[in-house]
Amino acid sequence: MSNYFNVEDVIIKDGVVSNITRNGAGFISTKDSEDVFVPARLVETSHIEMGDSVTVYMIKNFGDSLVKSINDTVPYRALRVVINRRLGVDLLDLIKPAVEAVPAPVVTPVPEVPEATEVSEKPKMSSAMLRTAVDRVFVSGFIGTSAMVHAELMRDFPDIDMMHDDAGLRVKMDISSLLHRMHDEGLIALARICTTGDQKNSSYSVYGTTAKGLFSAIIGA
């Protein structure tokens, strides 16, 4: 059953793909912590994967009163999804090998002109640096959420720019995607926390080096 909507009703927001279900449907979590349901056909045509940073065009989800399913509990439904970044991999990291393979042109030295002294900027956290830093966090037996990992890195790496130009959102998404991959690889344990018994999607996820450590931390909280 389709529902009529005006073009003015379409909302555009940035978010991250938080889940792809077994039946092919997906879910996106926006910057404002709003859940968006992505129909299976749109998941297929937009080629999204879990952890992708995306821009989603969405409308309020009316649901179907005759057929109740998990998507009826989600407040928004996606109409179109555009991938901005894939699994925390910067496009610059992908083209770097090709750029390095091109012979450097011969440049005639030009006399240097003194310039005004500028304040040096902090170097940004690269993908390789992020993996090394997160590994170091978990070596000490860390247990916490992806936001807590970000806070640890902010404290332990004062000389690295963890904020970039978007209040640290991209680094937080990179950390979340990295933790998902590390769990899939069997390197860390994961516990999904729900606040109510009938909750379909977890409120937040907690990571640790072992399942036993996670369990001890949760029951001791």
Short recap of the structure:
This protein is α+β, with helices and mostly antiparallel strands and 221 residues long. It folds into two domains: 8-85, Beta Barrel (OB fold (Dihydrolipoamide Acetyltransferase, E2P)); 91-95 and 122-219, Orthogonal Bundle (Arc Repressor Mutant, subunit A). It is built from six helices and eight strands, in the order βββαββααβααββα.
Keywords:
6 helices; three-stranded antiparallel sheet; alpha+beta; Arc Repressor Mutant, subunit A; 221 residues; five-stranded mixed barrel; OB fold (Dihydrolipoamide Acetyltransferase, E2P)
So, CATH architecture of the largest domain?
Orthogonal Bundle
Named CATH topology of the largest domain: Arc Repressor Mutant, subunit A
Give the termini separation: 46 Å
Overall, the morphology is: globular
CATH class of the largest domain: Mainly Alpha
Which stretches are low in confidence, meaning pLDDT under 50 for 5 or more residues running?
none
Number of structural units classed as domains: 2
Beta-strand portion reads 15-25%
Structural class: alpha+beta
Give the count of helical stretches.
6
Count of DSSP E strands? Answer: 8
Helical percent range? 25-40%
Rg on CA atoms, Å: 21 Å
Please write the string of helix (H) and strand (E) elements: EEEHEEHHEHHEEH
Largest sheet: 5 strands, mixed, barrel
Overall mean pLDDT stands at: 78
As laid out across the biggest beta sheet, the strand order is 1-2-3-5-4
